[in-house]
Amino acid sequence: MKRPSILVLGAGYGGLTTVVNLQKEFGTDAADITLINKNEYHYESTWLHEAAAGTLLPEQVRYDIKDVIDTGKVNFVQATVEGIDVDSKKVSTDNGEFTYDYLVIGLGFEGETFGIEGLDTYALSIANVKAARYIREHIEFQFATWSTEEVKNDSRLTIVVGGAGFTGIEFLGELANRVPELCKEFDVPREKVRVICVEAAPMVLPGFDPELVDYAVGHLQAKGIEFSIGTPVVEATPEGVKIKKNDDEFEFIHAGTVVWAAGVRGNRLIEETSIESMRARVKVEKDMRAPGYSDVFIVGDCALMINEETNRPYPPTAQIAMQQGERIAKNIKALAGEGTTEEFVPDLKGTVCSLGDEDAIGVVFGKKVTGKRASFMKKMIDNRALYMIGGAGLVLKKGKFNVL
Ligand code: FAD
Ligand code: NAD
């Protein structure tokens, strides 16, 4: 067997799981495995809403990649990918050019603004750990400024969250707990602060179980979160957002902070390759390869897969990204040994949406869960993801144990 050269781009859930499993599949010196990532650390994208609200420190959300890979088997390169040429099999980065026999693209998601005016410039997106830290500091700055300015601008204390999908709702859950802390810290009366969620669809968490949605909305409203439902954001300006109330009625919400959580797309670099994509997501073959490129695999949020039962795409989730990573490692091993690849079949265990640190809603193995029990499950899911990549040591270092 020729010693294959395998290049993995991105150390998110998908890329890192691929690498950890490649390590298991190939013995020492059996393959040249290179992992390229922008930072020397991995961050838990599924915890970014906590870092953005300020309920978790950014350092708690990330860990060093070298702590979880076998550096005897994997060459880790900290670099930013700048271009992917799948025809000449070359990847250019700010730290040199790389070639490969097999390529795995796992460069993750970006916030989708659907071309809505002003959002790219004036709204903040929970897109990565640096962006999350920026949101936290921006909100703190608004509170600090309000408490020291002579002529009070109350709209500084209004936070608009665009989108009531899982990201929006989880972020609101954290904010609901964080706002009272901020009020105390910066001497701000709680009644001055408004947190408003604006959702385009006629319901919160469109498509999710209505009983669980009612539970979530009731919980958040009881903590002072306001909802504006069926009212899409149509523009953002430095002063706030314009929302559409009906065909000829608009309202402007003045806000010091606008966080855009209304959907994701794949990494823009995908659109610059000759691989066909939709919103930077590649409709992959059943074995996770890019159509027309037998040596290129796509993992995680850059991949698009249709659920044949519903005829709709599977949602881009960490749960699926990690399962894909395992399958891709096996498929590369098979190809390197001149075997054949196998189809990736997702094994969906359910969805749990946190509502702050002590509450949650979810459907797990077909059963509905709410409250502390759901919150406990969410933390166990978070800990399991750590375990799958870094074993018990990583769980002890970064895990969530405040479960009662
Ligand atoms: P990512 O995790 O985004 O990783 C991409 C990696 O690529 C990063 O390390 C990044 O630094 C790197 N990278 C990007 N560009 C470059 C470049 N040019 N050069 C080098 N490196 C680069 N899913 C769930 O299943 N359960 C949840 O509870 C859940 N909660 C979520 C909460 C929030 C707030 C958000 C935003 C998402 C949540 N998701 C959840 C979705 C989940 O986070 C994504 O589906 C998952 O992160 C996708 O994994 P990935 O490996 O494709 O990309
Ligand atoms: P999403 O696409 O799931 O939700 C976006 C929401 O924004 C939708 O409700 C949509 O109607 C709304 N929206 C779109 N345009 C709008 C506009 N102009 N004005 C107001 N609202 C608008 O996106 P997400 O919540 O960012 O989630 C991204 C992915 O990550 C999904 O696959 C999700 O399942 C996953 N995720 C999972 C969890 C979890 O399992 N706990 C948590 C967070 C995210």
Automatic annotation (TrEMBL):
Pfam families membership: Pyr_redox_2 (PF07992)
Single GO MF descriptor: NAD(P)H dehydrogenase (quinone) activity
SUPFAM superfamilies in UniProt: FAD/NAD(P)-binding domain
InterPro entries linked to this entry: FAD/NAD-bd_sf (IPR036188), FAD/NAD-binding_dom (IPR023753), NADH-Q_oxidoreductase (IPR051169)
Cofactor(s) the protein needs: FAD
Protein name: FAD-dependent oxidoreductase
GO biological process: aerobic electron transport chain
Keywords of the record: FAD, Flavoprotein, Oxidoreductase
Family (UniProt): Belongs to the NADH dehydrogenase family.
Residues of the FAD/NAD(P)-binding domain: 5-325
Keyword match Oxidoreductase: yes
